[in-house]
Design a protein that fits this description.
2 copies of one chain form a homodimer.
Chain A (H helix, E strand, L loop, with lengths): L30 E2 L9 E5 L3 H9 L6 E6 L3 E3 L4 H4 L10 E3 H4 L2 H4 L4 E11 L4 E6 L11 E5 L2 E4 L4 E2 L7 H4 L6 H17 L7 H7 L1 E5 L3 H21 L8 E6 L9 H13 L2 E5 L2 E4 L3 E4 L4 E3 L2 E4 L3 E2 L2 H5 L10 E3 L11 E3 L4 E3 L12 H20 L24 E6 L2 E5 L10 E4 H14 L3 H17 L7
Helix pairs in contact in A: 1-11
Membrane topology (chains A, B): Peripheral membrane protein
Catalytic activity (chains A, B): a ubiquinone + NADH + H(+) = a ubiquinol + NAD(+); a quinone + NADH + H(+) = a quinol + NAD(+)
Protein name (chains A, B): NADH:ubiquinone reductase (non-electrogenic)
Chain lengths: 477, 477
């Protein structure tokens, strides 16, 4: 293993950073070495989504040192992301810093957050290789380093699916990170202003103000609903010159909100149509700079294109030499362990049960990730307490209760102060399903209590109240 | 005047945009033609800073159609900008959309906001040429258009001075726009995280966390104060691994806060030093990627460099063929008119009295710009009411009261809940001057009542309260 290098004697001149190797040449081989007997065992968490953050929140920092590796230093509260695109909520309200979720990360001398990507996993030697994320900042060189782990949790999430359609990455915007929402907002406001420039052609004006959403899942529907609320309430008032030119089209190959009850689906369809969202059944064949082309040859010019057709495993996950679940995710057993190796677990959208467990694949939902994170935190705390926290020390351990997922129901907002709540266990089961203002109220309340910190709960409430009183903010910063 | 073209007959197919010419080839010649007898006279405002926005707020939309041309659709509440860099205040809290300052801009059929730069002024024909701002968005072509005006107000502000020092534009960040504050915040948080990466050298860590501010005026001092508050309160807690490596240096060629009372200056110096800000007397000779070089040869490595050494006239202002005031600003008479031409006024940092008025040049302060905007709105309303609103119709008009500036005093925050308040009329005059917590309270109260909308007043109060309770937000989005 050429890229790993043990601690050098130079380390001693560091005080608070005593476990770093600091060889000057080549610096690329520095890293966190294996934990020593007097230190706490180290859990390395790859990723900072719902699964990873819920896990870190639950891990006991008295038992473990926690090291998180992720290209972003916050968790995104994804169910509310669509609301930030049009200014109903502020961007920061849906971002929770990891240091707030698990304060030990910034306080404990052996716990760290590294703004980096994991580039390789050496399961045999219990080491991961990482590279720091610098976003092209020229004054900082990208830095390679290694981290030895006692337990490794892979919670890297998934990436948007494009079905190999040409032009999606170049021209469409996804809706998964805060910077996506920022890009959508900037583009929407730019298009609104550009369409008002003197002398612009009718056709170009319609194109600029045509917002197309591909994918009729909860994200696509929520975004379409928010957008039509924004148009009805704010564009009419603040951009009255162009208010008759703006339109929203939602393109879906099958049914919208296919996981919901047929009655709820019908309700959502009616409601969206009433708010002015044009629902189109169609399959996208090609995406160009200013238009998309459907399978039947229809050309749809657009000014803003948002793509949300579900997620699939990333190239890094696919490249890992681990057992896989159907669909190409990292395979796990009933305790969320990767079966062929020691001390590696995987949770969230990047993982699934291996076929031999006989278990159904779980949907790529925040709810599943959150439950898995919570379960694994308890399991690791239990293992740690019973002295199984070190590398290779939990081989004959009794892992106890398996992870069992119980679906609590689905919710989706559809705009105009309306939402769907489907409390059935599965698509076939019977149970409560609701639509309308009461559901919308439940939807808001449920999210308010799930936003992690009190600070953000407070801000969500304040944002909602000010949007209600003053309208949405339209400054393009 | 080859680039101007009168309204074409094609215009008729437009309804809400009836005064646009819409020739298709070349489209570059489209624009707003001269106002007709049945229409309101048109005031064109170039810029959306303190001066332009205060003017638009005061103009009577029943008398005039208002057209604003600016590369940003909001006003920046500059005195609070330094607070947003470290998360004390949110970015949107200091940005006020123009459509909120003057709602007629988005409601009246003849009033517009154009996201564009003015590229030429034809004073003889009462027309300005503009080019839309697209920020490199590939799906929108830059668009040239013209606007005929009855009254033109040039309120384009100034640009940062660099004294021709090499490397300032490439490596330093100014602190004048919201995107500057965003860049500072992203860079500061990136440096904090990068300095925590395993294996990084001591020296590089110190460099990354060395924040250098050049210029000891109110902006530089306020930013240094905010930064040291952030370090003392938030970095110590949230980035405890690197807390001993972060430092702030303020470099000034002369005295800091030179416009203030000597007693206040001494107080500020003591206070900043106590908070850990290193004050250095020096002149910058050269700025390189990772270090600055002073006149005496000293090399100062930095991770973040903020430049605030005052402002001067922009290249566009310099290029205009108008009388100039000492210092190269657009020259105006006592009524803020540009003397050699009809119907052109200039206010704010881009303008100054011509020498023949015998008046002192006014400082480049928000206070001056705001007062000039207010005065000019009253003057234009008066002219409009007395039928002088049309182009060339106010030649023999009695302009009445001249603009007289009365300095209300200066304020500057210096961090640690302390501020300076200097209520003297001028540097030589006697009068009240205060320093400390009471001043800080006055400073906050004064700003709270000056932030324009109730929405933003509310958010400033909320932001300050949450920062006090929960600390600053550190998510890097």
């Amino acid at each position: 293993m050429s890229w790993f290098r043990p601690l050098s004697s130079k380390t001693r001149r560091f005080t608070s950073l005593s476990r770093f190797s600091t060889s000057t040449s080549p610096v690329h081989h520095a890293g966190l070495g294996p934990t020593k007997a007097h230190e706490k065992p180290r859990v390395v968490v790859l990723g900072s989504g719902w699964a990873g953050c819920r896990l870190m929140k639950g891990l006991d920092p008295k038992i473990y040192d926690i090291v998180c590796v992720s290209p972003r230093n916050h968790m995104v509260f994804t169910p509310l992301l669509a609301s930030t695109c049009v200014g109903t909520l502020e961007f920061r309200t849906v971002a929770e810093p990891i240091a707030r979720i698990q304060p030990a990360i910034s306080r404990e001398p052996g716990s760290f957050f590294f703004l980096a990507n994991c580039t390789a996993i050496d399961a045999l030697n219990h080491v991961v290789q990482c590279e720091s994320v610098t976003e092209g900042t020229q004054t900082i060189d990208p830095w390679k380093f290694t981290i030895a782990y006692d337990k490794l949790v892979i919670a890297l999430g998934a990436q948007p699916t494009t079905f190999g359609i040409h032009g999606v990455y170049e021209h469409a915007i996804f809706l998964r990170e805060v910077y996506h929402a920022q890009e959508i907002r900037r583009k929407l406001l730019l298009n609104l202003m550009m369409s008002d420039v003197p002398g612009i052609e009718e056709e170009e004006k319609r194109r600029l103000l045509h917002c197309v959403v591909v994918g009729g899942g909860p994200t696509g529907v929520e975004f379409s609903g928010e957008l039509s609320d924004f148009i009805v309430r704010d564009v009419r008032e603040r951009y009255s010159h162009v208010k008759d030119y703006i339109h929203v089209t939602l393109i879906e190959a099958n049914e919208i909100l296919s996981s919901f009850d047929v009655r709820l689906r019908q309700y959502a369809t009616n409601q969206l149509t009433k708010s002015g969202v044009r629902l189109v059944r169609g399959i996208v064949k090609d995406v160009e700079e200013k238009k998309i082309i459907l399978n039947d040859g229809t050309e749809v010019p657009y000014g803003l294109l948002v793509w949300s057709t579900g997620v699939g495993p990333s190239a890094f996950i696919q490249s890992l030499d681990f057992p896989k679940s159907p669909g190409g995710r990292i395979g796990t057993d009933e305790w969320l362990r990767v079966p062929t190796v020691e001390d590696i677990f995987s949770i969230g959208d990047c993982s699934g049960f291996v076929e031999s467990t006989g278990k159904q694949p779980l949907p790529a939902l925040a709810q599943v990730a959150e439950r898995q994170g919570k379960y694994l935190a308890m399991l690791l705390n239990k293992i740690g307490k019973e002295n199984g926290g070190r590398a290779n020390s939990a081989k004959d351990f009794d892992f106890g209760e398996q992870f069992v997922y119980k679906h609590l129901g689905s919710m989706a907002s559809i705009g105009s102060y309306k939402a769907l709540v489907d409390l059935r266990q599965s698509k076939e089961a019977k149970g409560l399903s609701l639509a309308g203002f009461v559901s919308w109220f439940i939807w808001r309340s449920a999210y308010l209590t799930r936003v992690i910190s009190w600070r953000n709960r407070f801000y969500v409430a304040i944002n909602w109240a000010t949007t209600f009183v003053f309208g949405r903010d339209i400054s393009r910063i």
